[in-house]
Each structure stands twice: as structure tokens, then as C-alpha cells.
Amino acid sequence: MPGAMSEGENAMFGALCGCIETTLLQSTNYWKNAAQQGLPFTLNPAVLYRGYVANLFNNGAATSSQFFFGGIIKKSMTGGADRPLTGSETITAAVGAGVLSGPVCSPIELVMIQQQRKGGSLFGTAAELARGGHLTRGTTGMMLREGSRRRLCRRRRHPPLPATRPGPAPPQASFAAATWA
Questions:
Q1: Could you tell me the residue ranges of all domains in the chain?
Q2: What pLDDT is recorded for position 178?
Q3: Distance separating alpha carbons of residues 60 and 146, to the nearest angstrom
Q4: Longest dimension (CA), the chain
Q5: Residues of the chain whose pLDDT is less than 70?
């Protein structure tokens, strides 16, 4: 839980989570971007993993900054007291953390998308975008996307599953296990 850690611990944990997420989902991220840009479908790893390092920086920075800002927002809401946030406080902290992460992540994601599309080096692509004045393109959209996504992905508290007992499980228990697993 972001409030139980220091800001530095939140940032490091978020960076680790972002890097794991990137490694697991890089190919699906490429396919999404390729479909949006009308590029052909491919299974070629050399193409699928174009922009991987930029995507590591992007998701590491996004998740790290969201954990960092979320922890700060939570502490400001609670005055540093160790208490759970209310539902509206949780949503506010999640949206705020997402919005504040947008300016951090938008330029990196733009570099990653351009690398996926055109190839090229990480620094060469970033320099080309900076020379053209395009490095901040899409920042407002990124802030809105990350703010809404963090709100939707906030941690949910699940009710406890029904106790197990010998014999076949009642239909409600099967449904609960499938829903909350």
C-alpha cells in the first residue's frame, strides 16, 4: 500500500512494477500501437521489441511517479496519520497521482511510439523530436489518460471468500471464487 512506505520506497517499488509490466506486455503494446497506425501484424521479436528500453523508462517512470505522488497526496490528506483513505480520498489520490505523472511520462512514451514505428536509437529519436519541438506533444492527453486509468485501477478491497467445507462447493462460492480471484 503506497501510504505504508516512504516516498523513496514508493518510487522504487513503482519502478520495479513498471519494468515487470513492460517486460510482460511489450508485444501487446506494439500490436496495439501498430493497429492504431495501420502497420502490419508481426511476430518478429526484432520488431516487437523496438522501443523496449524507452518503454521500460516510460512504464518505470509512470508507475514510479504515480506511487510517489500517490504517497504524497495520501499523506497530505491524512495529515500523516496512519488511517485508511475514504473512497473519495482514494479516487482523488489516484487521479491526482495519474495526472501528475503525465508530464513525466508523455515525452518518453512519444519516443517509444516513434521507435516502434520508425526504428532508430533511443537518444537519436528523442533528439529528433526535441529538435522539431514535438517532445511535449500529447502531454494533456496523457495526463487525462493516466488520471482516469489510475482511478480505475485503484486498489479494491474484496470481501472475504466463503469458508470452505467438505463436499461440492455451493454455486455462490464458485461464483465468488471466479469473481474475486
A1: 2-180
A2: 41
A3: 14
A4: 69
A5: 1-3, 150-181
